[in-house]
């Protein structure tokens, strides 16, 4: 690991039990839970799959931050298991969004571009703030990195939602919304797989016999 740590439970930021880390997570948890409520209502009102997909992502992140707070300070094995759970959650959400997008492509109408744009910009500001808050913790253990990966993906996803709103406004069709929803699903699947790989690597490292001194 970076910073010369003897194992991944330590880092230049003091590890996952660092009070600064816990304080940042509490702020991120509050922001994500608030944005989940905002986007799920706006997405349903605007009939936007991209907004609803992003709302579910906010909800998943809020749950993941809560899990990270619960395991902060525990042994690396438990933190890695928590990261595995978070990775699996991202994959499940990604698959759900893909299925929802396919259904909407067959039966959906064009969403309200104005609502998509306003809420998309609000979500972008929220996620950018959270990503900047968590940036310093991006090189910690798998549990800490998983939080950074989620925040980074969210900020990228919100830019795509704003672009989808412009596309819906310009074309008058639902396709930009559905395409962005699919991109968000792909980010979730990719991020989930990356988190699970890192966590599995840490678990294997912990289980490996240590050389005798």
From TrEMBL:
Gene3D superfamilies from the UniProt entry: Cation efflux protein transmembrane domain (1.20.1510.10)
Pfam families for the chain: Cation_efflux
Single GO molecular function: zinc ion transmembrane transporter activity
Keywords: Ion transport, Membrane, Transmembrane, Transmembrane helix, Transport, Zinc, Zinc transport
Residue ranges occupied by any Cation efflux protein transmembrane domain in the UniProt entry: 25-203
Membrane topology: Multi-pass membrane protein
Subcellular locations according to the entry: Membrane
Residue spans crossing the bilayer: 24-46, 58-78, 90-110, 116-135, 155-172
InterPro entries per record: Cation_efflux_TM (IPR058533), Cation_efflux_TMD_sf (IPR027469), CDF/SLC30A (IPR050681)
Predominant cellular place of this UniProt entry's protein: membrane
Domain of life: Bacteria
Name of protein: Cation transporter
Protein's organism: Pelagerythrobacter aerophilus
